[in-house]
TrEMBL record, chain A:
<protein>
    <submittedName>
        <fullName>Ubiquitin-conjugating enzyme/RWD-like protein</fullName>
    </submittedName>
</protein>
<dbReference type="Pfam" id="PF00179">
    <property type="entry name" value="UQ_con"/>
</dbReference>
<dbReference type="InterPro" id="IPR000608">
    <property type="entry name" value="UBC"/>
</dbReference>
<dbReference type="InterPro" id="IPR016135">
    <property type="entry name" value="UBQ-conjugating_enzyme/RWD"/>
</dbReference>
<keyword id="KW-0833">Ubl conjugation pathway</keyword>
<feature type="domain" description="UBC core">
    <location>
        <begin position="2"/>
        <end position="161"/>
    </location>
</feature>
<dbReference type="InterPro" id="IPR050113">
    <property type="entry name" value="Ub_conjugating_enzyme"/>
</dbReference>
Automatic annotation (TrEMBL), chain B:
<feature type="zinc finger region" description="TRAF-type">
    <location>
        <begin position="96"/>
        <end position="141"/>
    </location>
</feature>
<feature type="region of interest" description="Disordered">
    <location>
        <begin position="293"/>
        <end position="323"/>
    </location>
</feature>
<feature type="region of interest" description="Disordered">
    <location>
        <begin position="396"/>
        <end position="446"/>
    </location>
</feature>
<keyword id="KW-0863">Zinc-finger</keyword>
<feature type="domain" description="RING-type">
    <location>
        <begin position="36"/>
        <end position="80"/>
    </location>
</feature>
<protein>
    <recommendedName>
        <fullName>TRAF-like signal transducer</fullName>
    </recommendedName>
</protein>
<feature type="domain" description="TRAF-type">
    <location>
        <begin position="96"/>
        <end position="141"/>
    </location>
</feature>
<feature type="domain" description="TRAF-type">
    <location>
        <begin position="178"/>
        <end position="232"/>
    </location>
</feature>
<feature type="compositionally biased region" description="Polar residues">
    <location>
        <begin position="397"/>
        <end position="410"/>
    </location>
</feature>
C-alpha cells in the first residue's frame, strides 16, 4: 500500500516531466517498471545507443531498494534495428545486466531515492566511464550466478567511476 | 530527543478512528518542498533532524528501524549526515502549509464530493460527513449504512421492501430514491404527442414519435420547413431542395478540392516570390556595392569594369526575356561573388597596409624620441658647461664690486690697484672663487 502509493506519485510526476535522455517504457503495474536511458554527452562508448533498465519493486519500497538491472533486447529480423537494447560496457556492469552500484545495495540505499534519481545516477555512471571493459571475472560470474542481484555481496571498492 | 526515545514514541496511525492522511487523495498538486522525501506525501506530523532535513514521523521511524541496527549508525536519508537526535519542533509555518493542502473526503466512493483542507479532514469525517458508513443500529443487522441515511428512530434501514410497481426488492434506505427516480415502471408523457410512455423508453419513443417536430432533411441547403414527422414524408417528396441535394453535395466536394489546390498553389507562389525577391535584393546589393567599389578604387580592374557593363547590359534584358533571366542571374550571382571576394581581398590588403603603416610610424616615433633624448642630454651638458664657465666670471664681478665697496670704506686711494687685481690669478681671490664654483657644481649634480 505504502509502496504503490509512493510509486503512483512518482509516476504522476514523471509523466509530467522527465530529465533529458530518460523515458518510461513500461509502468502498468507497480511491481516492475522498464525505463530507457541514453547517455547524452559524446562519450564514444555509448554514443547512439539506448539502454533498457528493469526495476523490480518490493512491497517495502522505498524503505528497501528496488532491484535494478539492464536487460538486453536483441535485434530481430522482423523488427527495425531501433528496437535493440544492448547491455552497456562498463567496469561495473556485468554482461548479464547486473549492476554493481552501492546506491542499489541495502547499505548504500536511502529512501529518498526515486526511480528518476536512480536513472540519473546510472546515466552519470556511464557518462563518467572511459574504460571499455567488463568487470574482472565477468564470464565466470555470468555463467555461475543464479542469485538475485540483491543477494549478491558486492564489494564497493572503486570510487573513480 | 535521542533516537531510542523517538522510536518509543507512539506513531498513532494504527488507531481505527484516526484517518490515514497518507491514503487521502490530494485534489490539487502541492509544492515539492512540502513533500516528505520518503513517502512523497505532504508532511504528516513532521520531525526534524540535526541537519535540518524534515521527514514524517512515521517515515523516519521506519527508516531508522530498517537501516540502523544499532542506533549510532543512522545517517540522514537525504544528506547522510550522522544523526543521533531528532527534534520534534518544526517551524509552525510548515505544518500550517501542509494542513492547508486541499484533499478529497475519504468517503468519495460513498458519494461525498467534499474537498476540505487537510487540517480539517479529520473533523469533517468525524462530525460533518453524511456519507460516513456507520454500523446499523439494529443489533441483528451487520450491514453498514451512511450516516445521513440513519433514521432518527434507530431502525434498521436494511429491511427489504418490494417495490409495488416493478416488483424489485429494495432496501429501505434506498426506497425513496427508487420510487422517485430509478423505478423502471415510472411513466412519463411525451412532450410532443402526449402519449404516456415508460420513463426508460422515453428516449426511444422520441426518436420515432410521429408528432415530434423535425426540420426537413434539406435544411442544411436552406429549406426552412419544420413539421411533424408524419407530414414530413409528403413534404420531402416534393421538396425541390432535396432533389437538388446530391448536386449540391458534388459541388461542395469539388469546391473543397479546388480550395485545397488553390491553397497549395498559393504556398508555391509564395515560395517563388520569396526566391525572386531575394534574387532582386542580391542584384541591387551587388550593383550598389560594385559602384561604391568602382568609385573608391580608380585603379583599373578589368573584371570589375566588365562586370559593371554586364550589369547594365543584363538589367534591361531581364525585363525583356524571362528565358534568359535565370542564366543572367546565375552569371550575375557568380560575378557578385567574385566581386565580393575581391572586395574582401582589398579590405584585407587595406588593413594589412594600415597595420604596416602604423608600425612604421611607431618605429619612427621611437627613433625620434631617442634622438630627442640625446639632444636633451647634450643641451643639459652644454648648459652645465656654460654655467661652469660663467660662474668664475660672475664671481669675479661680485668680488670686484665687494672689493671696491671694502676699499671705498677703508681708503679711496687704492681703488686703482684694487680693480686691477680682479683679473690677475695670483691673488687669493680666485681660490675662494674656485671653492664657490665647486659648491655650484655640486648643486647642478644634485
Amino acid at each position: 500500500m505504502f509502496a504503490s502509493k509512493r510509486l503512483g506519485k512518482e509516476l504522476m510526476k514523471m509523466q509530467e516531466h522527465l530529465p533529458p535522455g530518460i523515458s518510461i517504457v513500461k509502468s502498468e503495474n507497480l511491481e516492475e517498471w522498464q525505463m530507457d536511458i541514453k547517455v547524452l554527452d559524446d562519450n564514444p562508448l555509448y554514443q547512439n545507443e539506448i539502454y533498457r533498465l528493469k526495476f523490480t519493486f518490493g512491497s517495502k519500497y522505498p524503505i528497501e531498494p528496488p532491484e535494478v538491472q539492464f536487460i538486453e533486447i536483441k535485434p530481430t529480423s522482423t523488427e527495425p534495428p531501433e528496437t535493440k537494447r544492448p547491455i552497456p560496457i562498463h567496469p561495473h556492469i556485468y554482461s548479464n545486466g547486473i549492476i554493481c552500484l552501492d546506491l542499489l545495495s541495502s547499505a548504500g540505499w536511502s529512501p529518498v531515492q526515486t526511480v528518476e534519481s536512480i536513472c540519473m545516477s546510472i546515466q552519470s555512471m556511464l557518462t563518467a566511464n572511459t574504460r571499455d571493459e567488463r568487470p574482472p571475472g565477468d564470464s565466470d560470474f555470468v555463467s555461475y550466478n543464479r542469485r538475485r542481484p540483491r543477494d549478491i555481496n558486492f564489494m564497493y571498492d572503486d570510487d573513480n567511476v | 530527543m535521542k533516537l531510542d526515545q523517538f522510536l518509543a514514541m507512539e506513531v498513532g496511525s494504527d488507531q481505527d478512528d484516526v484517518l490515514d492522511l497518507r491514503g487521502l487523495e490530494y485534489s490539487s498538486s502541492y509544492d515539492d518542498h512540502l513533500m516528505c522525501p520518503i513517502c512523497h506525501c505532504p508532511f504528516i506530523r513532521p520531525v526534524r533532524l540535526g541537519c535540518d532535513h524534515v521527514f514524517c514521523q512515521m517515515c523516519l521511524n521506519t527508516a531508522i528501524r530498517s537501516f540502523a541496527a544499532d542506533r549510532d549508525d543512522f545517517t540522514c536519508p537525504t544528506c547522510r549526515a550522522p544523526t543521533r537526535d531528532v527534534y520534534l519542533n518544526v517551524p509552525r509555518i510548515l505544518t500550517n502549509m501542509c494542513d492547508e493542502i486541499p484533499v478529497r473526503c475519504p468517503f468519495t466512493s460513498e458519494g461525498c464530493k467534499e474537498i476540505v483542507p487537510r487540517g480539517h479532514i479529520q473533523s469533517h469525517a468525524d462530525k460533518y460527513c453524511g456519507y460516513k458508513p456507520m454500523d446499523c443500529p439494529s443489533p441483528v443487522c451487520d450491514k453498514r449504512t451512511r450516516k445521513k441515511d440513519l433514521c432518527p428512530e434507530n431502525n434498521c434501514m436494511h429491511e427489504l421492501h418490494k417495490c409495488l410497481r416493478c416488483e424489485e426488492e429494495i432496501m429501505e434506505q434506498d426506497y425513496e430514491e427508487h420510487l422517485k427516480e430509478l423505478c423502471p415502471s415510472l411513466k412519463t408523457t411525451c412532450p410532443d404527442c402526449q402519449a404516456t410512455v415508460f420513463r426508460k423508453a422515453l428516449r426511444e419513443h422520441i426518436d420515432v414519435c410521429q408528432e415530434a417536430i423535425h426540420p426537413c432533411t434539406a435544411s442544411k441547403y436552406g429549406c426552412p420547413i419544420k413539421m411533424k414527422r408524419a407530414e414530413l414524408g409528403t413534404h420531402e417528396q416534393s421538396c425541390p431542395l432535396i432533389t437538388i441535394g446530391p448536386y449540391f453535395e458534388a459541388q461542395n466536394s469539388r469546391l473543397n478540392s479546388m480550395e485545397l489546390t488553390v491553397r497549395h498553389l498559393q504556398q508555391r507562389n509564395e515560395i517563388f516570390e520569396d526566391g525572386l525577391s531575394s534574387i532582386r535584393s542580391t542584384l541591387v546589393e551587388s550593383s550598389r556595392a560594385f559602384s561604391a567599389h568602382h568609385n573608391n578604387t580608380n585603379t583599373d580592374l578589368p573584371t570589375s569594369t566588365s562586370a559593371s557593363s554586364d550589369i547594365q547590359r543584363t538589367s534591361p534584358n531581364d525585363h525583356d526575356t524571362s528565358a534568359t533571366l535565370s542564366n543572367a542571374t546565375t552569371y550575375l550571382l557568380s560575378l557578385h561573388e567574385s566581386l565580393r571576394e575581391e572586395v574582401a581581398q582589398l579590405s584585407h590588403g587595406i588593413t594589412d597596409l594600415d597595420a604596416r603603416a602604423s608600425m612604421a610610424i611607431m618605429n619612427e616615433c621611437l627613433r625620434l624620441k631617442e634622438d630627442m633624448a640625446h639632444t636633451n642630454a647634450a643641451v643639459t651638458s652644454i648648459r652645465m658647461q656654460v654655467q661652469w664657465l660663467m660662474n668664475p666670471r660672475l664671481h669675479q664681478g661680485q668680488r670686484t664690486t665687494s672689493g671696491q665697496n671694502g676699499n671705498d670704506s677703508r681708503t679711496g686711494t687704492v681703488a686703482g690697484p684694487g680693480s686691477g687685481a680682479g683679473p690677475s690669478s695670483n691673488t687669493p681671490g680666485p681660490v675662494r672663487v674656485r671653492r664657490l664654483s665647486d659648491t655650484g657644481r655640486e648643486g647642478t649634480k644634485l
